[in-house]
Amino acid sequence: MFESLSFAAMKIELEHQKQRAKDAKKANKKYFAKLAKRPPRILDRAVASLHEEVFQEVDCLECANCCKTTSPIWRDKDIERAAGFLKLRPAELTEKYLHLDEDGDYVFNSAPCPFLGEDNYCSIYEARPKACREYPHTDRKQFHQILSLTLKNTEICPATLEIVKRLQQILPV
Ligand code: SF4
Ligand code: SF4
Hints:
This protein folds into 2 domains: 7-67 and 136-170, no CATH class; 73-134, no CATH class. Helices cover 55% and strands 3% of the residues. The protein is built from 9 helices and 2 strands. The protein has a two-stranded antiparallel sheet. Strand 1 (98-100) and strand 2 (106-108) form a beta hairpin. Helix 2 packs parallel to helix 9. The longest helix has 19 residues, at 17-35. The protein is globular.
């Protein structure tokens, strides 16, 4: 169970997040391979309800592991919106904070995110990139299309790991 975690407990959980995900990876991969054959709408319904359930129990402000360890992809619209919010020109924002990765997408130069505060608040929250708003994508439809991404996200996001764990209980294959 992913009980509502105290800040200290969350920190301990995060230290072991990658290892916990790695330990469960083989079983989760096997489960996802079988799950891919299930009707998409049944999977979508189950994941949507688990997303609601788990995110009522976890406080992202006590975690912020996504903002600390990985970068969102920045599309042109994201750059324009955040630049406007910061009163910068889009080119200035790009030059200061971003670079192109091997897939040709703009990502942060470094992690943690430069807009993440020590209190885990995002200083550009209203203008944050779409990828930040949608992370970890556990409330999206056609969930069967993002099983590999979800498996990857279990190494970063404790809520995703918990959703995948509970999914196996309510939707055995
Ligand atoms: S822009 Fe905000 S939400 Fe996105 S990674 Fe940075 S701190 Fe997190
Ligand atoms: S989305 Fe996941 S990794 Fe990001 S802050 Fe919330 S629980 Fe942590």
